[in-house]
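# step 3/5: fold
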Amino acid sequence: MALAKTVPKVEEYGLFIDGKWESPGGASRFTTRNPATGEVLGSFVSATAKEVDRAVSAAAKAFPKWRETPAPKRGQLLLRVAEIYRERKDELGETVTMEMGKILPEGKGDVQEAIDFIEYMSGEGRRLLGETVPSELRNKYCMTVRQPKGVVAAITPWNFPTAIPNWKIAAALISGNTVVFKPASNTSLCGTKVVKAYEDAGLPPGVLNLVTGAGGIVGDALIRDPRVKAVSFTGGTDTGKQVYLKGAEHLKYVHLELGGKNPQIVLNDANLDLALDGVLFGAFGSSGQRCTATSRLIIQEGVYDRFLGMLLDRLKSFKVGNPVDRGVDMGPVASADQEKKVLTYIDVGQKEGAKLRAGGKKLTGGDYDKGYFVAPTVLEAKHGMRVTKEEIFGPVLSVMKVKDFEEAVRVANDVDYGLSSSIYTKDVNLSFQAMERLEAGITYINAPTIGAEVQLPFGGIKQTGNGGREAGTTAIDEFTEIKTVFVDFSNKLQKAQIEG
């Protein structure tokens, strides 16, 4: 008699509302899976508008007391969160890798970025800088102070499932806001572990709440709730536009970080070995699933054939596989939908006349059949093709030849996005011209388009977003209101701008 096969029990996770983990009775659930193996990682609550209402209520109730907590004390709590992440870095990094699919060093790097940013934000507890300026009148002070907005909604993507949530949460909390956090559904386990660290650090109930579920339900309810004073969203451009429109109904502040179509320019005088390392990391790190990924390679004609040959040769030994394995250069894309989208764009590019030089297919056979593996792909393309203009968000690199620096800049700028950009050259004059003329929020000189550091502002122009910046010295701008204060100690009525 054959023994029944035992199915491993899937761990169930709840919502985090008002300091408690809960699973509403009869709630629908969804699961997340490892994109490399298909393994189910956890079961999560599909929250409804009712649970969102309760989470917002908890955040609104907790806001006055949290706002009154001295900012340095808030900073001390954030430091404890960073310490917990550091203690759990290996575990959290493995969770990122298993749930999102980036290779293990990048999974741990995702967590390290969260640690770095939280530590950086903790210092804002002793700054939260305002201005003090002279008055045109005697015995009068003029100054500005920062005040929190209130309840903030943080809606985050799956590609950096610990770093990006903490960009928003830490900056909002140090500013005195309370937060309702909705992670991307397919990285809900990472989102749950992000919140667990704050709970274990002793964050007061209601200050941070977690609601999982569909964006069309949870996200929509958050955006439309008039008690939510600000929405911080990172994701796709089309969805971002809808978030913006819905937020406008209540005239609430909406911060958007959206897509990119980032160029790496390689000029004739570039260090080609360095540029090659840069484009491999920029185009295929995280399987190209970064908003700053290098999706366009613009090469000056004098080194075009040589550099393209170097790239194709390196890709012959570029290893794609299970991202937890050592020696793997690239893991899977994050989901079946991502795989379909990437393969569709590869097909579109070839139909438009782009020449396939590497990859271009789903990897099959053996362990590849368990996941969503796409070969790193290189297309020789002409500027203006869809693959050179539209965000693909996968391991697809469009390569273009240009005559000179002027054409390179013109091609680089001729897209709807403006997040990151890169140029490789030894010419200091051209480097500074590129810094001035490349239409992007970020420009790298002799480095790839990825690799932002937390102490500098992050964001872009055009359809990459609506002008705000995260991280760096500007991180708290989206989460604070500026109040101008006049203190008149003259003991008489003084009239600015009025003579006599």
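# step 4/5: annotate
The chain is about 35% helix and 20% strand.
# step 5/5: archive (pending)
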